[in-house]
Write a structure and sequence with these properties.
The chain has about 150 residues and is mainly α. The protein contains four helices and no strands.
Length: about 150
């Protein structure tokens, strides 16, 4: 696998954060052989990228203070986005997507049902008004027939 970063300060910082994340994974996680091999390969690529002479002006002098918790969180988000892009969505993301789609379908069905019910209510109201008008006409005719009798 080959990863690439922009050759500017942003790319440099992303690579540094990503390297810290990979280093942390390799140091603290028990990985199976294939994942360990992948992480080691990524680590080597990151070292090679960061040793580029263009980045001599970007070095932090070995200070880890640049990478505060806020930066580590953004590195984790970048890591997640990178691996999502490389390997596709996780099972959890797929499940959440399915759930979202089901909820959207249910809400669209509910909305459609609500509009149908509203249309029926309007139609029933019209029929009621017509029946009231017809009842008035019949009462008027009945009154005329009683008066004539």
């Amino acid at each position: 696998m080959k990863i690439e970063f922009e050759t500017d300060i942003n790319g440099y910082q992303e690579a540094r954060k990503f390297k810290l994340l990979i280093d942390s994974i390799l140091k603290h996680e028990k990985l199976d052989h294939s994942l360990n091999s992948l992480a080691s390969s990524l680590q080597e690529q990151l070292k090679e990228f960061l040793s580029n002479p263009e980045f001599a002006n970007f070095t932090d002098g070995g200070s880890e203070d640049l990478f505060t918790a806020r930066h580590e969180e953004s590195a984790a988000r970048g890591f997640t986005k990178l691996f999502s892009g490389l390997f596709g969505p996780s099972k959890r993301e797929i499940e959440l997507s399915k759930q979202r789609q089901e909820l959207i379908a249910r809400s669209e069905h509910a909305e459609h049902s609500a509009f149908e019910a509203l249309a029926e209510t309007v139609e029933i109201g019209r029929e009621r008004d017509q029946l009231k008008e017809k009842l008035k006409q019949l009462e008027a005719e009945l009154t005329k027939v009683k008066e004539n009798s």
